[in-house]
């Protein structure tokens, strides 16, 4: 006979897993942006490799923070809510870029922004659902 976990505990464990996934995705994308800023910039059509370097430099510590939050003994709702909000803001900013056409991106760049935004949006939704279970 199995013993079911309380919903709050399930929500906490889901949140930890999703924060770890978020951390890994951010760390990989930041590392790739730092290591390959110029070739990625050419594919995206940004003509500003410094932007990718800057984002990579900002996102590596953010990835470490997400991992630290996921591994804290006590995971609070606030610790989960902030990444949800930031992920949602990323999706909104990405949509604004695509709608306004600023900055101008190549076709591959627009698809990349859209696909990354879709992944981040799904992650934010999953994190939000896990957060609800923590209530």
Descriptive terms for the model:
single chain; mainly alpha; 5 helices; 135 residues
Beta percentage is: under 5%
Flag low-confidence runs: none
The pLDDT mean sits at 96
Helix count, DSSP H or I runs of 4 or more residues? 5
The total beta strand count reads 0
Percent of residues in helices comes to: over 70%
End-to-end distance, in Å?
Answer: 27 Å
Helix-strand sequence: HHHHH
Q: Structural class per helix/strand content?
A: mainly alpha
Question: Could you characterize the architecture of this molecule?
Answer:
- By secondary structure, this protein is an all-alpha fold.
- It has one domain.
- The chain has five helices and no strands.
- It has helices spanning 7-35, 37-44, 49-71, 77-100, 107-134.
- α1 runs antiparallel to α3 (49-71), α1 (7-35) packs antiparallel against α5 and α2 (37-44) crosses α3 (49-71).
- The longest helix has 29 residues, at 7-35.
- The relative contact order is 0.18.
- The mean pLDDT is 96.
List the topology elements.
Elements: H1 7-35, H2 37-44, H3 49-71, H4 77-100, H5 107-134
Helix pairs in contact: 1-3, 1-5, 2-3, 4-5
How would you summarize what this structure contains?
By secondary structure, the protein is mainly α. The chain is built from 5 helices and no strands.
